[in-house]
Amino acid sequence: MTYPFQRLRGTRSRLSIACIFTSRYTYRMNEKPNPTRKCLVDAATKLFYAEGIGRVSVDAVAEKAGLTKRTLYYHFKSKDDLIAAYLDGRDQPNLEQMAGWFDAAEGGADKKVEAIFTNLARVARHPKWKGCGFLRTAAELAATPGHPAVKAGARHKTNFEKWLASALSSHHVGAAKMLAREIVLLMDGAFSSMLIHPNPDYVNAAGHAAATLIRARMAGKHQA
């Protein structure tokens, strides 16, 4: 999947994604891509997402990438840094995908947000889907809250919440920041439920609840 900075043109919600990233991401945009590092991150992404970070060794990542462990440690100081890079690498593509679903859906903000959940439920039916990689990684690292990967996950969730608030505000939904947080809670709650009950209906139910919240907020605005 391409990164959002390669395709962020023409739509307000996608442009708002670019606005929420910090100078840290702007700096990365100006960096010359390193093919060896990318190869390692791609290999780590496939293994970490499929099997979990605890079950995948650095040796396995190096073998998957077709490189030596020495080369891996040249680009990453530790496995912890590699795990963080794995999540950072998923941040922008995931945000772009959410924005794309939002943009493509017809109707008001309620229908557009519900479309995000509907598409997530569709993706969740794929046999290779293993849930939210950010939440799964955070669960594995629950005993180490200061881990760089936990911080990477927190950045992603914050970025999505900021983008959603901006998208809702652009559709004239009141109290957009609080509403965005409530919708994020519904989404992450659905993801968490699916770790126990692998049933995409939970995601659809969360989407219905999110749309109901938006309609209630809009109705209250018109009555005020």
Automatic annotation (TrEMBL):
InterPro entries: DNA-bd_HTH_TetR-type_CS, Homeodomain-like_sf, HTH-type_TetR-like_transc_reg, HTH_TetR, Tet_transcr_reg_TetR-rel_C_sf. PANTHER family: HTH-TYPE TRANSCRIPTIONAL REGULATOR RUTR, HTH-TYPE TRANSCRIPTIONAL REPRESSOR BDCR. Residues 34-94 form the HTH tetR-type domain. GO terms for molecular function: DNA-binding transcription factor activity; transcription cis-regulatory region binding. PROSITE patterns: HTH_TETR_1, HTH_TETR_2. The keyword DNA-binding applies. Keywords: DNA-binding. Residues 57-76 bind DNA. This is TetR family transcriptional regulator.
